[in-house]
């Protein structure tokens, strides 16, 4: 497979996953704005900080308001991380490699993008309508990923898609946790905290799965569930193991036989850190610091993957 094709498939996976997760980000904050109108202003700012979009936002807006953030993170073409921009990037990546994905997948993604272009916040200003809109985005992303899972041959293209998808998911789950915990490191939980943590679980469709394992909402258990659980598909641990498996399948090696390149070394080290760091150690370090360190390491992993597989000037041809 050409490096250009592998790069496009990898970023196709990342962008579609990111579109879904940004829709989740927005949904959880809109729900919180209804439940906690007196404290939600701070959480809109936390959302910008957790997604690292605040610097870009400040370039275009003088104040932090709910309406402006919704428009900025959903429809604003000036924001490279808006849902509109990311969906366009996903479409462009697929357009250049249509020969490696099912025809129906390209047609569905293209229709999704074209329909999205006709939707504006001004035309559907009420928050209830926006919640339905974000639910529609999540459902469409599930449809697209389900189509790939059902119809894409298990070849290099498949594993580059899986690699991008789960690296992105691990990163975004860490940012969901930041929204719940950032500026709130008290061990005891008040009524506001219960609503915030419940919303964080619901934002990753984890509420019912969490309650199957734990009887009550407890931030220590929530942190352990979303970071270290090996069975829940949106947990960081689960996502990294899926990404590790895909990366080793691409090279044809196995983790138990040792790494072959710097990308495999980085993902195995990151996996072991998540596996062998106890939740009590995470809390002692500070969850925000732990998540920040994880995001830096995850970005380093992305850079190593680029260097090995996508950088034609110095990468390995395979």
From TrEMBL:
Pfam families, per database record: Alpha-E
Domain called DUF403: residue spans: 1-310
Highest taxon of source: Bacteria
Protein name, UniProt field: DUF403 domain-containing protein
Taxonomic source organism: Leadbetterella byssophila (strain DSM 17132 / JCM 16389 / KACC 11308 / NBRC 106382 / 4M15)
Lineage: Bacteria, Pseudomonadati, Bacteroidota, Cytophagia, Cytophagales
């Amino acid at each position: 497979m050409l490096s250009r094709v592998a790069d496009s498939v990898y970023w196709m996976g990342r962008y579609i996953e990111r579109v879904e997760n940004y829709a989740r980000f927005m949904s959880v904050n809109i729900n919180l704005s209804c439940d906690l109108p007196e404290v939600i202003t701070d959480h809109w700012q936390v959302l910008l900080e957790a997604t690292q979009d605040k610097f870009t936002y400040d370039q275009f807006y003088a104040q932090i308001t709910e309406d402006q953030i919704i428009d900025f993170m959903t429809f604003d073409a000036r924001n490279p991380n808006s849902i509109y921009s990311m969906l366009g990037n996903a479409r462009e990546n697929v357009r250049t490699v249509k020969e490696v994905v099912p025809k129906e997948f390209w047609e569905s993604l293209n229709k999704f993008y074209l329909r999205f272009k006709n939707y504006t916040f001004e035309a559907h200003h009420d928050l209830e309508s926006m919640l339905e809109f974000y639910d529609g985005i999540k459902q469409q992303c599930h449809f697209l990923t389900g189509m790939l899972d059902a119809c894409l041959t298990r070849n290099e293209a498949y594993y580059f898609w899986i690699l991008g998808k789960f690296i992105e998911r691990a990163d975004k789950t860490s940012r969901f946790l930041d929204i719940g915990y950032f500026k709130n490191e008290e061990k005891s939980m008040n009524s506001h905290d219960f609503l915030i943590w419940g919303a964080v679980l619901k934002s990753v469709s984890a509420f019912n799965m969490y309650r199957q394992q734990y009887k009550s909402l407890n931030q220590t258990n929530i942190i352990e569930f979303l970071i270290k659980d090996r069975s829940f598909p949106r947990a960081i641990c689960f996502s990294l193991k899926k990404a590790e498996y895909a990366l080793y399948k691409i090279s044809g090696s196995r983790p138990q036989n040792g790494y072959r390149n710097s990308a495999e070394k980085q993902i195995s080290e990151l996996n072991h850190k998540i596996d062998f760091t106890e939740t009590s150690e995470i809390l002692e370090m500070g969850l925000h610091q732990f998540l920040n360190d994880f995001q830096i390491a995850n970005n380093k992993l992305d850079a190593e993957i680029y260097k090995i597989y996508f950088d034609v000037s110095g990468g390995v041809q395979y």
